[in-house]
Amino acid sequence: MENSWINYLKDITEVRNPLIYGLFEEDELIGFSIGRIKHWCGGTEYYIEEMCIRPDHQHQGYGKEFFALMENKLKEKGLDTIYLMTDRDKPSYVFYKKTGFTEIPELTSFYKSF
Questions:
Q1: Tens of pLDDT along 23-45?
Q2: What's the CA gap between 19 and 76, in Å, rounded?
Q3: What is the domain-level CATH number for residue 84?
Q4: Does the residue 87 lie in any domain?
Q5: How many CA atoms lie within 13 A of 40 on its CB side?
Q6: 3-state secondary structure (DSSP) of residue 25
Q7: What is residue 24's predicted lDDT score, i.e. its pLDDT?
């Protein structure tokens, strides 16, 4: 299991144009966002692969604050969009909607196990 976790982190950080943000309270990491910069014909976006706030810091405004800080940094870099995916049955779904994200109803995800 540990090897799978290490490989997963390598997959999402060893990409072209990685962009990782951390949210700290004093010297303690309480949240992070791991993603990459993606260029599209319509603009440049920050594609978030993983984002979290430590469970003991959730529901206290840290996530909203973290996104505000990231948005400012992304604007400084010339990016104009944040893109992410989440499950509809997770608390993060409601959080992202409350934070101003727009759901894209035309998109769906597919997978095939074999």
A1: 999 999 999 999 999 998 888 99
A2: 14
A3: 3.40.630.30
A4: yes
A5: 13
A6: strand
A7: 97
Number of domains in the chain: 1
Strands 43-53 and 81-83: parallel
Q: Which residue carries 């940094």 as its tokens? A: 73
Read off the pLDDT of each residue in 47-52 and give the average, rounded to a whole number.
94
CB 44 within 8 A of CB 37: yes
User: What 3-state DSSP class applies to 91?
Assistant: helix
- Cα–Cα distance between 17 and 40 in angstroms, integer? 14
With respect to residue 57, please indicate whether it lies within any of the assigned structural domains: yes
Instruction: Label residue 1 by pLDDT band (50, 70, 90).
Output: low
**Residue span of the structural domain in which 76 resides:** 2-98
Q: What is the pLDDT of residue 114?
A: 92
Nearest to 5 by CA among 55, 50, 57, 58: 50
Q: Which run of H or E residues covers position 96?
A: helix 91-98
Q: What is the DSSP letter of 2?
A: H
Backbone angles phi, psi at 11, to 5 degrees: -60, -40
Q: Quote the percentage of the chain above a pLDDT of 90.
A: 73
